[in-house]
Amino acid sequence: MTRLESSCCKFNRNGTWYSGQDARDHLQRKLEQVQERAKVPTTEAFIEMAAFKNGMTGKHYLVQCPGDTPVASALWLATQLIAVRKH
Predict the structure, then answer these.
(1) What does the DSSP 8-state code read for residue 53?
(2) Please, which residues have CB within 8 angstroms of residue 43's CB and are 6 or more apart in sequence?
(3) Dihedral sign from CA coordinates of 83, 25, 55, 16
(4) Predicted confidence pLDDT, tens digits, the chain (87 residues)
(5) For the whole model, what pTM was predicted?
(6) DSSP 3-state assignment of 68?
(7) Which of 23, 17, 27 lies closest to 47 in space, CA to CA?
């Protein structure tokens, strides 16, 4: 989530674009909610459980970085996770 926060990318939730900071705050709240209900064993599990779509509306989250086409948040987050783990 820190990479999203520090990026220049925008986060789309329910048709509205938010800053990386707002996205990080939202995903942090979702992580806390998921952890209250069940153990989240891995980052991948969190992405699959909560970080890819709105639980109420079912709409998928999107990430758009400057000059790029919007992509599914699950894809963006998974790609960033791979990059972090390589370093």
Answers:
(1) B
(2) 81
(3) negative
(4) 688 888 899 999 999 999 999 999 998 998 888 888 888 888 888 888 888 888 888 899 999 999 999 999 999 999 999 999 997
(5) 0.84
(6) coil
(7) 27
